Amino acid sequence: MSTLPLPFPRILLGPGPSSVPPRVLEALGRAPLGYLDPELFEALTELQANLRTVFGTTNDFTLALTGTGMAGMESCLANLIEPGDEVLIGVHGFFGGRMAEIAGRYGAKVHRVEAEWGQPLDPVKVQEAASAAGKLKLVGCVHAETSTGVLQPLGPISEIAKAHDALFLVDAVTSLGGHPVEVDEHGVDACYSASQKCMGCPPGLAPITVSERALDVVAARKSTVTSWYYDWKLIGNYWHGDHMYHHTVPVNLLVALQESLRMIVEETPAARYERHREVSEQLMSGLAKMGIRPFAQEGYRLNTLNSAWIPDGVDDIAVRKALLTQYGLEIGGGLGALKGKVWRIGTMGESAQVRHVALLLAALWGTLHG
Q1: Is the bond preceding 294 in cis, omega lying within 30 degrees of 0?
Q2: Residue 360 half-sphere exposure, CB side, CA atoms within 13 Å?
Q3: Quick check: 257 and 199 in contact, CB under 8 A?
Q4: Distance CA 45, CA 51 (A)
Q5: Would the N or C end of the chain have less CB density within 10 A of its end CB?
Q6: Helix, strand or coil for residue 357?
Q7: Has this prediction a pTM greater than 0.85?
Q8: Residue 193, phi then psi, degrees to nearest 5
Q9: 307 φ/ψ angles, rounded to the nearest 5 degrees
């Protein structure tokens, strides 16, 4: 029996990727340049400058790694950690847990500070764990926890890292371009993100910025960085100076990110953050009128990833399937312990539009009450 094709293009309102604007798609479709082409290096210079604006930093080592957001996480931990290092990771969702797991794989002695999913980290508990851990090499946390929709305040965690003379690592995969990250203001030593969330670009790149302090720590390592592919020294030699060949970078993705960053600068980061806030408020207000309650703790909710309890008796998979097949709308389900319990609705980048949310609310109402 034949089936009707799904509506296309999809409206991506899940936890990522988000929809991509036509300007970026046009840039993506241009004839590729060689990875040593002078025109590409000019594009990379502009890309780096605009990334610094969005990250809120003056760090020279600010670039886009080949790979998804997990490449950013992996590269930071591979470069900053040596076997036996004491690290403290705040875990208040799925991706904090992943950061702790990868740190352990690189030989770190990991101290986890847990918070209930849906709530931010408690600075008191972080401080107690830091004091008990001894000499810390690194403190890490997730700024925007994609699994729960929680926005973690960075200031208190930064102060704890500073007090213990530890590096401060931040996951900004779902916040960069949608919430202020302010790397320099918060004393962040390494921060990574992803191109496919609030940046409005297809998946495949991981923006990253690293402080001089962190680079000095890497230069003083006693052991070689375990990952050759994500060795910052080798990667930096390609992006700077003599542009020494390291690997064949995804040139079309880089040109697409260059265009998406131009759009962010043109809109201005402040206006972009306000747009994300307004669209998120529209969504959560509409859900509330249907009796659908927010999951994340009030006052700590992301504007880019909205989590909500699934109403009692509602079939999670059936609703998401209906939204996709009938309306071309994608929303996400829960991860881990939240599977089947919450919906995760992304309002990120190009997807953060009033008309998209209005369509979703109408479609969801029709699906639930039709």
Answers
A1: no
A2: 30
A3: yes
A4: 10
A5: N
A6: helix
A7: yes
A8: -145, -160
A9: -105, 140
User: What is the b/e burial string over 227-238, where b = at least 16 CB atoms within 10 angstroms of the residue's CB?
Assistant: bebbbbebbbeb
Write phi, then psi, for 367 (nearest 5 degrees): -70, -40
DSSP result, 187-243: T-SEEE--TTSTT-S-SSEEEEEE-HHHHHHHHT-SS--S-STT-HHHHHHHHSTT-
Side chain identity at residue 88, one-letter code: L
Domains and CATH numbers, the chain: 11-18+268-369 (3.90.1150.10), 22-265 (3.40.640.10)
66 in Cβ contact with 250 (< 8 Å): yes
Residue with the two structure tokens 């969504």:
283
The tens place of each residue's pLDDT in the chain, 370 residues long, gives 346 688 989 999 999 999 999 999 999 999 999 999 999 999 999 999 999 999 999 999 999 999 999 999 999 999 999 999 999 999 999 999 999 999 999 999 999 999 999 999 999 999 999 999 989 999 999 999 999 999 999 999 999 999 999 999 999 999 999 999 999 999 999 999 999 999 999 999 999 999 999 999 999 999 999 999 999 999 999 999 889 999 999 999 999 999 999 999 999 999 999 999 999 999 999 999 999 999 999 999 999 999 999 999 999 999 999 999 999 999 999 999 999 999 999 999 999 999 999 999 999 999 999 8
The length of the chain, given as a count of residues: 370
313 sits in the region (left: phi over 0; alpha: psi -120 to 50; else beta) called left
**Integer Rg of the chain from CA:** 21
Q: Which amino acid is at 292?
A: I
DSSP annotation string for 65-96: EES-HHHHHHHHHHHH--TT-EEEEEESSHHH
Nearest to 180 by CA among 285, 270, 88: 270
Does residue 62 sit in helix, strand or coil?
strand
- What secondary structure, in 3-state letters, does 7-47 show? CCCCEECCCCCCCCCHHHHHHHCCCCCCCCCHHHHHHHHHH
Number of CB atoms found within 10 A of residue 220's CB: 7
